[in-house]
Amino acid sequence: MSKVLTRIDGRVLSITINRPEVMNALDSETHRLMSDALDAYAADDELWLCVLRGTGGQAFCAGGDIGAMHAAANGGEPYVVPASGYGGLTSRFDLNKPVIAVVDGIAMGGGFEIALACDLVIAGESARFALPEPKIGAVAYAGGMHRLPRQIGMKRAMQLLLTGETVRAAQALDWGLINEVVPDAELDAALARWTGKLTACAPLAIRATKACVNAGLDQPLSAALALQDSGGIAALEAMRTSRDVIEGIAAFSEKRKPQWQGR
């Protein structure tokens, strides 16, 4: 059985970590398979949305496989993280398509960092989040030290980064770490609702929005607006000249549902 499962449902690609015996921890092969799946997602214009999950009901992802790291440190196979980062995502900065994390159980260390790198996160009530790396003499290498303060502010981020303490789903929602908490048994229904919301929107508009947001994050507002208007954001220019813009205006005028083509 593959360590990573993929499924396509219409415009949606699901990537599922399939190592429940180790709480979906990531060894070198799992990193590579996830990176390959995300490469395929990025390259396929027929896919508009990606969902990341874990199997087993106990964990989204427990982070790096400590056993594999220990073996590597003692002369075994090297522990390899791809250039695209943990799970093929945390260092992937050119993906304008949306990614949703569905957290069922724990998201620890690199698993939490993967969730932080997603655009949206929905979680079951039993979900828990932590960056416990300092407890084993390490740090949150996969973006956690940088994404966390940007997403929830310095004091709360430092609380998690310096203590390794665990945050439960309700608190994660309150802090703005995730978008929605539902009973564990309702995660699939919640995901269907969210995928419906996103796929109802024009895919090129979604990609343009994500590209503009990311391009402007480290800019003053005036500079971000100037960049947006300069023609320098390829995804935005693709949207402006797309058939979908014409279709969206026509559908609104004709009071019908638009038929997006992603072109």
From TrEMBL:
One of its GO terms (molecular function) is enoyl-CoA hydratase activity. Keywords: Lyase. InterPro entries: ClpP/crotonase-like_dom_sf, Enoyl-CoA_hyd/isom_CS, Enoyl-CoA_hydra/iso, Enoyl-CoA_hydra_C. The keyword Lyase applies. The keyword Lipid biosynthesis does not apply. One of its GO terms (biological process) is fatty acid beta-oxidation. Its EC number is 4.2.1.17. PROSITE patterns: ENOYL_COA_HYDRATASE (PS00166). Belongs to the enoyl-CoA hydratase/isomerase family. This is Enoyl-CoA hydratase.
